[in-house]
Amino acid sequence: MKNFSNYTDYDKKDNLHFESKAVHGALGTEPLTGAVSMPIFQAVTYRHPALGESTGFAYSRLENPTRQELERTMAILEGGIKAFAFSSGQAANMAVFSLLNPGDHVLLSDDIYGGTFRIIGDVFGKYGIEHTYVEMDDLDAVKAAIKPNTKMFFVETPTNPMMKVADIQALSEIAKSVGALMVVDNTFLTPYFQNPLKLGADIVTHSSTKYLGGHNDTLSGIVGVKDNEEIAEKIHVHIKSHGSQLAPMDCWLLLRGIKTLPVRMDRHNENAKKVAEWLRTQPKVKKVYYVGFEDHKDYATTIKQTRGFGGMISFTVDSFETVQKILRNVDMIMFAESLGGTETLITYPTTQTHEDTPKDVKEKLGITDCFLRMSVGIENVEDIIADLDRAMNS
């Protein structure tokens, strides 16, 4: 692990557990000074020793030491050959969909983040990319939706916000059998709880704004590539051509967040289970969507492919008036979009995260006027429950 001479030689730390890898990253320390925290290299251009000689850095759109450390660290944590840090989760997904050519067809989870819905429909649709939404937890439905020109499966698991779970290994095998790429959005569970690349996926994406950063202070996205150098090079060309790379300061914030990822995810996981169980006892709550319930229809798949349930819960209440009451009265819990931070957040998907999803699609999925989504934070769980109880019942 020790390196006091260059930025080239780094340790993948295969002998260490995940928690240690998260803390120490790739280089871990800055090799020339020994700085324990990788510095923020707020530099655009880099001086060359002589003609034909280079330090390995030329221009920060192409490469930056802080971003390089983040990208190498994420490749280590996800078990891939390369990772790329983008200016947002949307930018990361744009790069992935850019792998498609006009006339190609992509299968997507039917219950998918509204921003992804907008990208594939409004942006790539006009370039001749075909798409079909399908219940990815129904393998027969997936097989039936495949076309001769299907080139990609894009899967959220668990989905946002209905908490459906897809069998990554089984879907990867189906995708491989038809020559399609398997892409998994791993935002909700992070590499601490789930490793799609090790389960057969070709590409993993994150809105690293969420759990990876963990503090609601940086907008960012990650794409990880399993073992295909050609795909990695295409992503590399995309990021340097589009200029959608993550800035040094944001890379540093993300590196700092990753150091505490395992500790935070354990607390999110612990708190969410207790909050979900409490919600089920409430007369005004009609249904709770949480992957950690043993009676969740995809529970067996969750247990097979993950090491935790995460911190996300959705639930339906008895009336729109109850929704209004909760959102008006929560105090410690914050009525705000996003998820995955230290603070507990509650949001109203039908007009916020899934505003761009057509109403008939939302209603079919169950995203109604009485539907709420909660990102359970790392506060004391008794305080979270007390705040919910007061907001809903007093």
UniProtKB/TrEMBL annotation:
Protein name according to UniProt: PLP-dependent transferase
Origin superkingdom: Bacteria
Cofactors named for this entry: pyridoxal 5'-phosphate
Tagged with keyword Cytoplasm: no
Organism from which the protein derives: Roseburia inulinivorans
Modified residues (N6-(pyridoxal phosphate)lysine): 210
GO cellular component term of the entry, any: cytoplasm
GO biological process: methionine biosynthetic process; transsulfuration
Family listed: Belongs to the trans-sulfuration enzymes family.
GO molecular function, one term: pyridoxal phosphate binding
Coiled-coil ranges (or none): none
Cross-referenced SUPFAM superfamilies: PLP-dependent transferases
Keywords assigned by UniProt, alphabetized: Pyridoxal phosphate, Transferase
Entry annotated with the keyword Transferase: yes
Xref: PROSITE patterns: CYS_MET_METAB_PP (PS00868)
Gene3D superfamilies noted in UniProt: Aspartate Aminotransferase, domain 1, Type I PLP-dependent aspartate aminotransferase-like (Major domain)
Matches recorded under InterPro entries: Cys/Met-Metab_PyrdxlP-dep_enz, Cys_met_metab_PP, PyrdxlP-dep_Trfase, PyrdxlP-dep_Trfase_major, PyrdxlP-dep_Trfase_small
